[in-house]
Design goal:
By secondary structure, the chain is mainly α. The chain folds into 3 domains: 1-44, no CATH class; 47-183, no CATH class; 196-233. It is built from 10 helices and 2 strands; from the N terminus they run E-H-E-H-H-H-H-H-H-H-H-H. It has helices spanning 9-21, 35-39, 50-78, 90-121, 130-137, 139-158, 164-179, 188-214, 217-220, 225-233, and strands spanning 2-4, 26-28. A two-stranded parallel sheet has the order 1-2. The chain is elongated, with a radius of gyration of 26 Å.
Length: 234
C-alpha cells in the first residue's frame, strides 16, 4: 500500500494512477493535513497492535486476580489450605480459554455493529465513527492474540497429566478405593461427556488455526471471496 494525500484532486489522482501502474495499491488519506501522520508511519512500532495488547493485558490481569482470590486466597483464609501452586498451571489454564473466546467475539462484534449502523443510516457510503473504524482495523490483530491464548491453553492442557498435584490426587483416590475394598464402576455418561468435551475442543482449535491461517495476506490473496467467506462463517 502507498498512502497518498493532497488538496489537488487531479494531481492526487495522477499520482494514484502512477502507483497502480507500478503494481502497488494507493490509499487515499485525505487532505494535505494527513502528510505529517503519513511521514511518521515508518517511525511507529506496531501501531495496530497497541489496542489488542493493552486490552488482552487488562483482561488477563482482571481474570488473574479474580481466579487468585477465588482459588488461592479464599481457601487459605477460610479453610487454611495452601493452593498457591495453582498460580503456575491451573489459573493460567483457566484464563487462556476465557480470553481466547472473548477476543474472538471482539473480532466479529464490530462487524455486527457496523451492519446495524449502516441499516440505521440507510446507506453504506458514510464513514463509521472513529472508535468503530479503529476497532475494525485491528480485528486481525485481535484474532491473532486470541489464537495465541488458545495455543497456550492447549499446551497447558497437555501438561496436566504429569502434574504432581494430579498424580497425587489419582493415587489418593486409588488408595481410598483399596482401603474401602470398593471399585467405582465405569460411568459411561461421564466418559461420553469427557470425550465429547475433548473432541469438540480439538475441533474448535483446528478451526481456530484454519481461521488464523486464512487471515494471512499471503493465503487470503490466493483464495476467492466465496472460499474466504466459507472459512470465516464456519
Amino acid at each position: 500500500q502507498v498512502f497518498v494525500c493532497g488538496d489537488d484532486m487531479e494531481a492526487k489522482q495522477m499520482v494514484m494512477d502512477i502507483v497502480r501502474a507500478l503494481g502497488l495499491t494507493p490509499v487515499d488519506q485525505g487532505s494535505l493535513l494527513a502528510a505529517q501522520e503519513i511521514e511518521n508511519y515508518p517511525l511507529q512500532l506496531f501501531p495496530m497492535w497497541k489496542f489488542p495488547i493493552l486490552l488482552s493485558l487488562g483482561l488477563t490481569a482482571f481474570f488473574f486476580f479474580y481466579c487468585l482470590a477465588r482459588d488461592v486466597i479464599y481457601p487459605y483464609v477460610y479453610e487454611n489450605k495452601d493452593f498457591s501452586f495453582f498460580i503456575a498451571i491451573s489459573i493460567p489454564n483457566r484464563i487462556c480459554p476465557i480470553l481466547a473466546l472473548i477476543l474472538l467475539a471482539l473480532v466479529y462484534l464490530p462487524g455486527v455493529l457496523a451492519a446495524i449502523i449502516q441499516l440505521y443510516r440507510g446507506t453504506k457510503y458514510r464513514r463509521f465513527p472513529d472508535w468503530l473504524d479503529k476497532w475494525m482495523l485491528c480485528r486481525k490483530q485481535l484474532g491473532l492474540v486470541a489464537l495465541a491464548f488458545a495455543s497456550l491453553h492447549v499446551l497447558y492442557t497437555l501438561v496436566i497429566p504429569i502434574r504432581f498435584f494430579v498424580r497425587w490426587r489419582i493415587s489418593s483416590r486409588i488408595i481410598s478405593q483399596a482401603l474401602n475394598n470398593k471399585t467405582e464402576p465405569l460411568n459411561t455418561t461421564n466418559a461420553w461427556l469427557s470425550d465429547s468435551y475433548l473432541a469438540l475442543g480439538i475441533l474448535g482449535f483446528f478451526l481456530f488455526v484454519l481461521l488464523g491461517i486464512t487471515s494471512l495476506p499471503s493465503v487470503s490473496n490466493n483464495v476467492n471471496w466465496r472460499e474466504f467467506r466459507f472459512v470465516q462463517v464456519r
